Each structure stands twice: as C-alpha cells, then as structure tokens.
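User: Hey, quick favor. My workstation is busy. Could you predict this chain's structure for me?
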Amino acid sequence: MKSWWYYSVELLPGIITKGVYPPDLPMIPRMMMRRCSLQGMSCLDVGTMEGIMPVLMRKAGAKEVLAVDAINHCDHKLKAVKHYHNVDFEFKTVGSIYQLDEKLEGRPFDLINYSGLLYHVFSPLMALCGVRPLLKRNGLLIVSTNVVLDDGYSMEFNNGGRMQTENNTFWYVSVKLFDYMLRYLKLSPQDCIYVPHTAVKSDIRYTFEKRSGYLSVLCRASDEVLATADDEWMLNSAAGSWEYQWNADWKLAARQPKSKININGQLDKSHFRKDLDCLDLWEAVNNRPPLTVTQSPSDSHLLSLSDKF
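Assistant: No problem, here it is.
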C-alpha cells in the first residue's frame, strides 16, 4: 500500500492505493472504451501499468485479454489487482513498443487500447505501424495522446523539458497531424474526447506556451487509406513508398479475421467528413465542449471494487 502507484485502486472495501492523478480528472480512454461492446471479444491493452483497463475489459465480458508493458515493473501490483477484483488476464513484457506485431506473433484483437504512449516514443508513426496489423479487420482502436491545438501538421519536441519535465516525454503532435496519421494508416476516427491541459490540477506540469491537451480517439479499422478527394499524395505514398510498405505489415492486416465488435449508442456525426464518413478531429476538438472535470468516480483514474465497466 505504501509503494508508488500510477492508478488509484480499491483492493479491499475502503482500502485504496494513492495514484498520481487528482480524483476529478477524467480518464478519457476508459470513458471511450464504454462505447465498445466487449462481450465475447478479444482485447489488448498496451502500456498497462497496474491493469485498470484489462480489469474493466474482463468485467465488460471480454473473452480474452492480453496486457503488455515494456518491463515487468508492476508485477506484484498486477497480481494484487487481479486477485482482489477477481479477474484474470494474460500479461507479457515486450521491451520497446516498436514491432509489436512481431513480438505478439500477429495475434488478432477486436479492441486495442493504445493510450498514453505516442508521446513516450522517438517515432509515433513507427509505433502505430507496429500495432496496426494486430487489429482485426473492422476492429476498434482507442488511441490517446497529448496534442497541440495548432492549425497545421507538426509535432512539438520537448526540448529542455519545456512541455513536461518527465524524461520519457518527447512529442506533442498537432491535432491535424494526428488525424492525418490515423487515416494514412487505415484507421477511421469515429468519436473523441478532449481534455485541455489547463484543466489538469497536478504536481506534474503539462502546459507550455501553446494550447495543448489530451485527446482520446475511437477508430474503426478500414481496408483502405482514408485520403480526402484533394489528397493524391496520401494515396500515392501508401501505394509506393518504401517506408509505408516496410514498416507496417499490411499483408498481415489484410488477412486478419473480420471483427463483429459494435460501437454502443449513436455516433454524433455533426463533425464527420462527408466524403470519408469519419470524424474530423480538428473540427470536433474545436467545436465540441472540452471535458475538464468529472464528478463520477467511474470516469476517473480510480478503480473501485463495485465498478462493472
């Protein structure tokens, strides 16, 4: 109980570990996962820490759940969480997050949670290339990362710790570039939640001189690159560039089984691109009300014994 915990977890009634996040900060990947119907599905959680998301996946009826992390730094905590919440799931260490498809031997998943990772790697695009082939055709991916609200296609580097002092933080990607990367890798944005960094009350500094926040996106796997009508470059690059062909196993992606996973409820399509039938992240982030606080513990970074999903 006195050791460091990333998440707050109730292990026994009223006995709760102290995580790093304030109690009213929304955990938006968790909220986004409720949009997914997980009964009987196969799920992957990448960068699992103490396993909150795998516990919730199992409680939601997932048939099989694999949690992975770079190293085995939460082993005793994972075992405690599984024991006290009476759930079981697989756990593996994978080292570097690159080439995850090779490390997991091409294993297919209906849902993959890939949150809080892209700002911790040297190359966000390469990291996504490693996980994309593991997604079943028509499957769902929750991908969440720090973003910059710049009206352009760029990434901000954390030189001198100007964005965060945390030494594994490298990039804040712009919303438009994030959107472009997803569509380039045959991922169709369907829904999103945005929390501005100014709303985060924490000992850790997240803000810098540009507007920034944390964005969680629910994507549906597509069989095609999602290029707008005026973007011939995206199509040509996907068809002919060596990097695109070499760094993602598209043959594996194409032969994965088709998922039957559903999205719960109606999608708000007011900011969808009509030509591609997918969400325009820039329009959504700028026009939907941002989420700043939550009054519901089940939307926070606290895992309670009574939580069902």
